[in-house]
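STRUCTURE:
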């Protein structure tokens, strides 16, 4: 038997109201979720930008410190720096970088960038251990192999730190700080020092290879 039209007329407003209410609740929930998601994304972006600005500043100082060590050949004003000119001695203290002392949320970075930054102290520790071994077995008074290893090692480390700072700038949309042609550039200086040490090593190996076996 067909329902009385008056019955549908009586319940229709309630049904429409209920459906409208459900749709309104769902729509309101979706809008709230979107607002919260947008707010979180905006906050994450601001935190990432702050982290990048702060960390890049520290990395730039660290790379410059590496450059100063790479220039250190154990001399002072052209003479050996140790023992009143008797032997070569370091004159520049290596820079330090402790990322965990920075009050930032590292999780806002992509995993590869976060790992690269947090792994820098371990890389520096490995280099220090290598140099300690090189110094122990090198020859007094010049310690040539030690200083070449130290200069080359810090030139390489400085270039890696500088490249990491550039990646952070790109990630955060910060200016890259490119230098105009003809201006002094830290990375160019680091590359030149690295290549200079490599050339010296190659030249020495060639000289040793050319010596008669009786001399070796």
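SEQUENCE:
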């Amino acid at each position: 038997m067909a329902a009385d039209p008056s019955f549908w007329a009586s319940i229709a407003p309630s049904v429409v109201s209920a459906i409208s209410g459900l749709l309104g609740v769902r729509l309101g929930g979706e809008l709230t979720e979107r607002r919260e998601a947008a707010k979180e994304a905006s906050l994450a972006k601001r935190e990432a930008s702050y982290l990048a600005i702060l960390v890049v500043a520290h990395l730039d100082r660290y790379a410059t410190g590496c450059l100063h060590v790479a220039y250190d050949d154990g001399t002072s004003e052209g003479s050996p720096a140790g023992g009143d000119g008797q032997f070569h001695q370091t004159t520049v203290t290596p820079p330090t970088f402790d990322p965990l002392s920075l009050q930032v949320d590292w999780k806002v970075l992509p995993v590869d960038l976060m790992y690269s930054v947090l792994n820098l102290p371990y890389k520096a520790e490995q280099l220090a251990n290598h140099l300690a071994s090189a110094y122990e077995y090198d020859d007094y008074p010049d310690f040539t192999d030690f200083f070449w290893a130290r200069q080359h090692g810090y030139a390489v480390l400085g270039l890696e730190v500088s490249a990491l700072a550039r990646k952070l700038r790109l990630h955060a949309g910060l200016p890259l700080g490119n230098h105009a042609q003809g201006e002094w550039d830290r990375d160019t200086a680091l590359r030149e020092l690295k290549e200079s040490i490599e050339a010296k090593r190659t030249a020495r190996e060639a000289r040793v290879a050319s010596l008669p076996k009786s001399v070796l």
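REMARK: Residues 51-210 form one domain.
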